[in-house]
Structures are given as C-alpha cells and as structure tokens.
Amino acid sequence: MANVSLEVNELTTKYVTRFREDVYAVDHVSLKVEAGKSLGIAGESGCGKSTLALSLMGYYFPPLYYTSGEIIINGRNISGLKPDDVRKSILGTEIAYIPQAAMNALNPTIKVIRFIEDVVQAHGLDLTKKDIYDRARQLFETLGLPAEVLQKYSVELSGGMKQRTVIAVSVFLSPKVLIADEPSSALDVTSQKMVIKMLRQLMESGMINSMLFITHELPLLYNVTDDIVVMYAGQIVERGSAKETVFDSLHPYAKGLMGSIIVPEKGLRDHKLTAIPGVPPNLKKPPLGCRFAERCKYVRPECRVTSVALRDIGGGRAYRCVLPEQELREIYAREADAHVR
After folding, report:
1. 3-state secondary structure of 244
2. Contact, 320 vs 311, CB < 8 A?
3. Domain ranges in the chain?
4. Of all residues in the chain, what percent are helix, strand and coil, respectively (each to 5)?
5. Which residue range or ranges hold the ABC transporter domain (predicted)?
6. Which is nearest to 323 in space by CA: 231, 255, 233?
C-alpha cells in the first residue's frame, strides 16, 4: 500500500457571515496525496480552492470554522485540535502554507534571518542563532538563493526573490506537506520559471514529502503536478491524473474548464476555446441537486433534484455527475465529430 502523506475524509468547513449565515465553501471533500506526489487543485475563482488550502492546516479563526471530517497527516489526525497545539506542533513541521500574495508575508522592518529566528522561536526549538544561520544558509544555497539574502530586508528583494525566500522559509522546519496557493501569480515569466523549478527541487530532493499546488494557470498544473482535482461550488467534481484531467475530462464543468484554456501540447492546441456561460451558485443557499445544473448544457430533470455523489470509476478516477461515463463519452465524441465537420 502506498505511503499517504495527506488524507482528507469528508472535510466540511464554513464561513459565518456577520448576519450569522453559513457559507459552506468546502463541502464533504475527500482526497489523498501519496508521499512523493503532487496534487493540483483547479477551478474558477470562488470555487473553494483557497478555503480548502486554509482548512487543511487544521488552524481555524473567524469567520472560517471547522464543521466535520478528518485531516490526517502521516497517520496523525489533526482534526479538532486546539489552535495553540496546531500552531506549535503542526504548522511548519507537519504542514506548511504559502499563501496568495506571499511576497507580502515578510516583515519589511526586520532582516530575513531575524524572520527565520522568530519562526524557530515560535515553535520552541532549541537552536542557537549560529545553528539557525548555518542551517538557513545551507538551505538557501541548496535552493539557489544566495546566502546574502539572509542579511537583507524584504524591500531590498525583487518580487521573484521575495517569493522564493518565502518558500525557503516555509520549508525551513522540513514539513511533510507543502501547500502552495497561487505561488506564481503576479510574477513575470522568468520569475515564474524559477519558482516552479524551486518547488520541483523541493519534491525531488525529499525536503518535502508531498505538495498541493493551487493555481488559476491550468497549464501549470499539467506540467507541475501528478494528479488534479477540479472543484466547483465547494465540492470536488472530478479527480484523476494530470494527463487524464486535462486531456480526457469527464465532468461537464471540468470539460468546459479545460476547453477554456490555451494548452500548447499536441491534441489540445488546435481546439477552439470555449466559455462556460452563467455564474456559480450562491453557497448561502446551494441548489438541492447538482450545483452545476444551471450552467450545464447536458442537464436532465433529475440533476436539479438529486444530490449527486462522486462516481468512482477505478484507477484513481472519479467524477460527480448523474450521467454514466459511457454516455458522457458518446456525447463528447459526437460534439468532436460535429466540430471537425
């Protein structure tokens, strides 16, 4: 049996608005990430990707609240732990998070090495300043960052250098799982390549066991991750290998999402780009049946009244739709033939 770094079972978390309304941004999500593997999370804005990332750390603060489910990291269930216990014994050592706009995560008033010392102190580790510096210098040099960065303030670094510094700081305590939320956003192409190269190096060198990679830039998922899950309105609607999900999507939303991007690989680069009409549902009052029904061109009457579960079709693949796999494939084949004609 494969060694699983991260296992999530039926995780549900919600936001509570100032009007005491519940918004279930993560709704009964289950997934597994094997050691040495990377998982991509795809979906349009507001689908729950970043909320899932925050929820997986087991550290909740208003307006985000844990409702139910399990988060298991290397066999340890961290669900329901007290915030102080999570902060001291989980964050940074078991799981680390690179937030969106990570370039702004560094304190501009202290040098990078002081920031790292604060991280070590917060976890109560018995390391001298010399130990911390030597370890930080070795880590930075291993990841292609010059040691002099440690003695600089964040305002002295470029955007790409800040991003790579935040990543290096995030893995300083050797976490088992790294969550990267839009790590290449707001960067130029050259800086993006350096960030992606750095993340790959972390995986290949074993500095981290597993990675969750979240981005709006879907072609990156295909080139960076082993597997992909597609989220829509707080739920996972498709799961499969990166190749299967990009080139052979089954769920109508995933199919439309992959058809709306430019992918240079043979087999997709000649496809006509399409758009998905409509908007996602209001999660204060989610629809009774399929959450994609109002936007789906294959919708059936039962889609609007029946709660739809994930269909497991083997080989790690699953999708959330009332239509059988064969029927979906026949529909897509007819549409492809019509397009060629």
Report:
1. helix
2. yes
3. 249-340
4. 35, 25, 40
5. 11-258
6. 255
DSSP 203-216: HHHTSSSEEEEE-S
On whether the CB atoms of residues 239 and 310 are closer than 8 A, the answer is: yes
| pTM exceeding 0.70 | yes
Q: In what order do the strands lie in the sheet with 64-73?
A: 22-34, 4-16, 64-73, 76-77
How confident is the model at residue 270, as a pLDDT? 55
Give the residue carrying structure tokens 């087999």.
267
Summarize the confidence of residues 151-179 as an average pLDDT. Answer: 93
Residue 226: closest CA among 237, 251, 209, 236: 209
Residue type at 258 in one-letter notation:
M
Band of the pLDDT at 264, cuts 50, 70, 90? low
Structure tokens at 34: 């094997």
Please report which residue ranges of the chain form alpha helices under DSSP H: 49-56, 83-89, 112-122, 129-142, 159-170, 189-205, 218-224, 242-247, 252-258, 325-340
**Contact 221/241 with Cβ under 8 angstroms?**
no
Q: How far is CA 307 from the centre of its chain?
A: 25
